[in-house]
Write a structure and sequence with these properties.
Structural class: alpha/beta
Helix content: 25-40%
Distance between the termini: 21 Å
Strand order of the largest sheet: 2-1-3-4-5
Order of helices and strands: EHEHHEHEHEEEH
Strand content: 15-25%
Radius of gyration: 17 Å
CATH class: Alpha Beta
Number of helices: 6
Number of strands: 7
Largest sheet: 5 strands, parallel
Length: about 200
């Protein structure tokens, strides 16, 4: 029996939502990206919104038209278009997600369509979970598929040593569930977008 060719790996983009000085989000995202790199179904990439430095939405045309006039928008569009799945690593600010994350979502429209979205949240006692619930509403309106499994990290400051996030078993297990669900849904949604299974 002839062996079937293996499916090409999908692109998983992990987005660091916090841009403030002293944040721990990048260390959490570095851990998750490394964890995702172990998953053979994905090519894992990271986008740090602090480094991307998108200004407050400054395009003259609605995003759905894709008539971009700024180089930063065209670069962000290229990154999102090339991605098959996303994980948003976010803290919770006043019961919601950081403004730079909403700004990054609002820059684009069509590029987000029919792609699964996972969340890794962190914070104090609430572990950023309210930011995730609010974020799921936004990505659903972008015609993304917010998956149910999440990674929630309470009291994150106790798990960061010398700038590195030190996950516990509960975080590792949750990350595995997120990656498994993303892999399942991303393959199906790639076909929905007309790509190769």
């Amino acid at each position: 029996m002839t062996a079937q060719p293996s499916a090409p790996p999908m692109t998983l983009t992990t987005v660091v939502a916090s841009t403030r000085p002293g944040r721990v989000g990048r260390s959490v995202a570095d851990w998750f990206t490394g964890r995702a790199a172990e998953c053979e179904q994905f090519e894992s990439h990271i986008v740090d919104l602090h480094e991307l430095a998108l200004p407050f939405f400054d395009e003259p045309h609605p995003p759905a038209l894709r008539r971009y006039t700024k180089s930063h928008t065209r670069e962000w569009s290229r990154i999102v278009e090339a991605s098959d799945a996303f994980v948003f690593v976010t803290p919770e600010y006043n019961g919601g997600f950081p403004a730079p994350l909403k700004n990054a979502w609002d820059y684009l429209a069509v590029e987000w369509h029919h792609k699964p979205a996972g969340f890794v949240s962190y914070g104090g006692v609430s572990a950023g979970t309210r930011a995730v619930q609010m974020g799921k509403q936004v990505v659903a309106n972008l015609r993304m598929l917010p998956i149910a499994p999440t990674v929630s990290i309470p009291f994150v400051g106790q798990l960061v040593e010398d700038g590195d996030f030190r996950p516990g078993k509960v975080h590792e297990d949750a990350a595995e569930q997120v990656l498994d669900e993303l892999a399942r849904t991303a393959r199906v949604m790639r076909t929905l977008r007309g790509g190769t299974y």
